[in-house]
Amino acid sequence: MNIRDLEYLVALAEYRHFRKAAEACFVSQPTLSGQIRKLETELGAVLLERTSRKVLFTDVGLTLVEQAKKILLEVKVLTELASDQGESMSGPLHIGFIPTVGPYLLPHIIPQVKARFPDLEVFLHEAQTHQLVPLLDEGKLDCVILAAVQESEAFIELPLYHEPMVLAVPEAHPWADKTKLPMDALNGQTLLMLGDGHCLRDQAMGFCFAAGAKEDGSFRATSLETLRNMVAAGSGMTLLPQLATPHERVRDGVCYIQAYDPVPSRLITLAYRPGSPLKGRYEQLATLITAHLEAVWPKTANEDAAIGL
Question: What are φ and ψ of residue 143, in 5° steps?
């Protein structure tokens, strides 16, 4: 038995398909299949029910897959400790982002990261929170940048910035001439929202429901850009995170209004596994992100400034 065999086993459990698992492991299908059979022989246990249509794991197989994941994670930690990468800011770093952060934060920070840490090999992965959390837990991602939610509480979270949400209304809306608006003005209003799976949806809805607003049940967007385009088309209003809004108060048919009392906002954090030897690396990365955003988007660092108080 070797580490590579365990990687084959975990990949097969993830893809439930020999060819796809082999491609993910960069080996031929016969190689992966042969190593899995070798592993079964060595362990003296049947791990798979092989059929012509799909791969099914036995109960023993599923138990061993979970143990293999733990072993691979410990091997990753061991490698990181041995290479002393925690402080060096060199080598590979796999970072996860949620869709409502990545497209708007990355253009600001990636040039800074490359300039400040030229020996760091950054690999970016975009997915929703419920997909990123298990990837981080299993060691497939080194850290993730996301909005602080209950699912991320098991990890160490470094605060990056507080991000206000801005009310977006059509340019022809009666509120289009306003620069700021109290949240209770939304009482009785209907807002467009993201679809299920986006943590921003739950956070925005919490503020809207507290203000007496309701969701437009006839439409749920898959992205912030879809929401923005729906607002521009005059289909309704919504809340957008500040980094996703332009500096101009009005652009492309959308008027952006600062909301207050309370300021709807979310905390964006960099999360990593407790006990990770790369703690120093994450702290340096978090410091760089926070410092750069305070210089470029000072309002994101201070909620009061977002409404001119």
Answer: -155, 165
Report the pLDDT value the prediction gives residue 87, as an integer from 0 to 100. Answer: 58
Predicted TM-score (pTM) of the model is 0.76
DSSP string, 18-40: HHHHHHHHTS-HHHHHHHHHHHH
Distance CA 70, CA 297 (A): 40
Cα–Cα distance for residue pair 32/305, rounded to 1 Å: 57
Alpha carbon distance 154, 6 (integer Å):
26
User: Phi and psi of 102, rounded to 5°?
Assistant: -50, -55
Amino acid at 158: L
Give 212's contacts (C-beta < 8 A, 6+ positions apart): 184, 186, 187, 188
Query: What is the C-alpha separation between 101 and 115, in angstroms, rounded?
Result: 21
Which residue stretches of the chain have pLDDT < 50? 300-309
CA distance 306 to 294: 13
- By CB atoms closer than 10 A (0-12, 13-18, 19+), residue 246 is exposed
**Partners of 156 in beta bridges:** 272
